[in-house]
Design goal:
- The chain contains six helices and 13 strands.
- By secondary structure, it is an alpha/beta fold.
- Helix 3 packs across helix 4.
Length: 237
Amino acid sequence: MKKPLIGITLNHREDTYFTIRGNYIDSIIRAGGVPVPLCYDENNTELPEIVELLNGILFSGGEDVNPKYYGEETQEACGKICDDRDEFELKLYKYAVSKNLPILGICRGIQLINVAAAGTLIQDIPSFTAEKIPLDKHKQQPPYENFAHSSNVIEKTYFSELFGKDKISTNSMHHQAVKDLAPGFKAGVISDNGIIEAIYSENHNFIVGVQWHPEFLWDKGGETEKLFEAFIKASSK
């Protein structure tokens, strides 16, 4: 059977080159897909043609999504922003959904999905609540193959069916998170201190986002194999 082509979004560094960590590439290959790194230009004129060639899209981690895309002013604690990447990925998401392509979002990717589908974000976890949720459990130091915290899998959701358990351990490298869920999406995993760790669409074949970094966790647990294999399986149909 022909392996599915999986587009992977890239970081844009200093307007001179694109980057992607190798473990994104390795994870797609290990799960049975063919990774296709996606560069973009100022006008994104080739997007429809690109999407026609692909069987699935992986939105990778990276910079913060510009708050203007979810109707907020940029707070001081908001991190680095790349408008070119935001614009490209928001358009890419729209085209992918119109073609019912399977979509997996990781870290920034879950945030991009939620914003593209009309949800909002917490711009900075420590400054969001009166309780001052500590960031150390959500923005761990290397090695990223270690687990940072446990999370609760919500019953009768896509993730409870996929993982078959009510608790999982995750690594974590973020200071932003999903705030208001986009219409048509449900939370499937929530951290012990209330941060949404995974979402999925109730209206599409496969649109899934996770806040942790499963690409680091092959052979470490964290349900990585099940997540990537489900994505590749959906992209093979």
